[in-house]
C-alpha cells in the first residue's frame, strides 16, 4: 500500500515500492539501434513502392514486424499484406539492417544496469525484436547482466507490444507482481504495453519523437537521457 508521501509522479516513489526487479526494453534503451531500424524500414517499404518515413517507424517501435507491415499496408493500400509480401519486406528490412554496421550502446545505460545489479534487483530484457545480431551480442556488450531465461523476445510472444503480453510474460517468469517492478522504455507502444501490464514505467526519450507521444502513452516519468535518469535513480536505489 502506498503512503501519502508517495507521489507517483516523482522518482522517490521507488522507495515506496517493494522493488524486486527492473525490466529493460532493448532497442532504444540498451542499444542505440532505432536509427538503423528506422532507416531499414524506410528502405524496405520504399523498395515495395510504399511511401514511409522514419517518424512512422519510431511511432511503431516495439510492434512485431508482421504487425508493422500489416498496419502500414492497411493504412497506405487499404488491405492486409499477403504472407509473401510480409516475408519479403521483413527480409529486405533485416538484411539492410545488417549492412548498416555495428549498433552502439545507449550512453550511460550500463551505469543504470550496474546500479540495479548492485542493489540486488533482478534484471529482465523485454523486447519485441527478433534481430539476431542484437540478441546474440547482448552479453558481449553488457557482460554479466543478462541470463537467457530472463530475456523475452519476438520469438516468445504472439501479440507483442502494445499488448501487455511481453511484460506479463516477464512477470510470470520472474514470479513477480506488477508493483515489484520498474520498466525502462523509450517508445510509445512499449510504454502502453508496460502500463497495461500494471507496471510503473519510466520513459527515456532517446529518439526523435516528441515527449507528448510518451506522456500520452501513460509513462509515469520521462527523462531526456540515461544520464539524468541515473543521477536521480542513484538517490533512491542503493
Ligand atoms: Ca524500444
Q: Helicity, in percent?
A: 40-55%
H/E topology pattern: EHHHHHEHHEHEHEHEH
Structural class determined from secondary elements? alpha/beta
The CATH architecture assignment of the largest domain turns out to be 3-Layer(aba) Sandwich
Q: How many individual helices?
A: 11
Main β-sheet, spatial strand arrangement: 3-2-1-4-5-6
What small molecules does this complex bind?
A: calcium ion
Describe what this molecule looks like in 3D.
The protein is an alpha/beta fold and 238 residues long. It folds into 2 domains: 10-33 and 104-233, HAD superfamily/HAD-like (Rossmann fold); 34-98, Orthogonal Bundle (DNA polymerase, domain 1), CATH 1.10.150.240. 43% of the residues lie in helices and 10% in strands. The chain has 11 helices and 6 strands. It has a 6-stranded parallel sheet with strand order 3-2-1-4-5-6. The longest helix has 17 residues, at 83-99. The chain is globular and about 55 Å long. Calcium ion binds at residues 25, 27-29, 61-62, 186-187, 190.
Jot down its keywords.
43% helix, 11 helices, Rossmann fold, six-stranded parallel β-sheet, 238 residues, alpha/beta, binds calcium ion, DNA polymerase, domain 1
